[in-house]
Amino acid sequence: MTTTTNPEPATRPAASPIVNTFTAGRLPSYAPWLVLGTAILVAAAVFGVLALAAGSGYDWGGAILVGALLYIPSIWLFSMLVEGRRRAMDRLVTALVTGAFVLAMIPLISLTITVVTFGLARFDAEFFTFSMRNVTGEGGGALHAIVGTLLMTGAAAVISIPIGLMTSIYLVEYGRGRLARGITFLVDVMTGIPSIVAGLFAYAVFSIFLGPGTRTGIAGAVSLAVLMIPVVVRSSEEMLRLVPNELREAAYALGVPKWLTIVKVVLPTSIAGITTGIMLSIARVIGETAPLLIAAGFTASMNYNLFDGRMQSLPVFVYTQYANQGNPPEAYLDRAWAAALTLILIVMALNLIARLVARFFAPKFGR
Question: Which CATH architecture has domain 127-365?
Answer without folding.
Answer: Orthogonal Bundle (1.10)
